[in-house]
Amino acid sequence: xxxxxxxxxxxxxxxxxxxxxxxxxxxxxxxxxxxxxxxxxxxxxxxxxxxxxxxxxxxxxxxxxxxxxxxxxxxxxxxxxxxxxxxxxxxxxxxxxxxxxxxxxxxxxxxxxxxxxxxxxxxxxxxxxxxxxxxxxxxxxxxxxxxxxxxxxxxxxxxxxxxxxxxxxxxxxxxxxxxxxxxxxxxxxxxxxxxxxxxxxxxxxxxxxxxxxxxxxxxxxxxxxxxxxxxxxxxxxxxxxxxxxxxxxxxxxxxxxxxxxxxxxxxxxxxxxxxxxxxxxxxxxxxxxxxxxxxxxxxxxxxxxxxxxxxxxxxxxxxxxxxxxxxxxxxxxxxxxxxxxxxxxxxxxxxxxxxxxxxxxxxxxxxxxxxxxxxxxxxxxxxxxxxxxxxxxxxxxxxxxxxxxxxxxxxxxxxxxxxxxxxxxxxxxxxxxxxxxxxxxxxxxxxxxxxxxxxxxxxxxxxxxxxxxxxxxxxxxxxxxxxxxx
Length: 486
What we know:
Radius of gyration: 30 Å
Helix content: 25-40%
Shape: elongated
Oligomer: single chain
Number of domains: 3
Number of strands: 17
Number of helices: 15
Largest sheet: 10 strands, mixed
């Protein structure tokens, strides 16, 4: 292994279910976990005489995704009959786009290291219908046609990635983009986003270059599985090369599955080539022409994308790369953050409220933080209260929790819950004097300096906080202690 030079050559196919109310070519509802075979009609059941009608919203969302991926959008596109048998697709063929995809020749940017950007080219993005779902139990199988005909956009990258970490980064960024745009919920646990990396390895040995046959790993639905399967497959192909001493580059590429329990890929079948699909235009669905006016209307729906916004947060507000990534993971959270800043909140304080206590509360409630419905001006007020010392950070977290449960203002909650800090110097000075009188040894240790001094000062501060039941402003107490212990 040490004598070999090798590099992964990885492309990615991504199937993204579009967030539409109905299917691609009929009016049946798109609904997850509905009663099996209850969302079907003659069209999606492939019955003779049924006429497909294109879903306009699906095409618009595919175009919007293509624009976000910096693609060229086709002014004219058509639908193609793809001869590929699915047991759960009643037509026995798939309606897709072959030679004229709706979007092509774009790119997506990922952050490989903080501040380090890599560009991965997008070959194409096309619309097609999804298949249904096979359910296997014991010695028999059942078919649920509900999902058949659901609109998908299939995105195909160039083989510009070389590691599992890069493939994972592309997957994460793509999920963020389609969610930001609202074109897909992209919930992988519901099958709304599925990944299929195509992997081979360039190996250099003794001045010769070899390329292993391409293996496609099917239907990955977690970021952990994406990275683990790619890294394993690279190692497997290298080991296979070492065992044989050469590489045969003939024949179709193979299709493999990912065994998550064993953390290995397993052979499934040989993969079809493009000519095996025998694509030809569908005759009963009109082609699509995108007029300049329609295109401009769709383009007007674009927003600032997550990676661009993430970089802006680090530069404009001085946030860490981690905090900026957390804030921009969901569009609603990022917009709440910015609205709170416009209302007067300090960027770092608002960030801390959202990314620490806020995200914990959201995780427990299994929602995004913005879905609590907290008004941005109230979030700004709470941030200012903490910065000005009206309440401490711990009390701020308690107030934020109460704000997720009611529409009360943060200052009202602080008053009702007795969380407002005591900052009156004359009142606190009396408590400090009492604490110093009760702890003469700690006072002497502070005055003596040395290793025990800092610990003793902290002890005295703690005594004051205890006597005031945590309501004393620690900054004011520290200043008073400093004067009296000089």
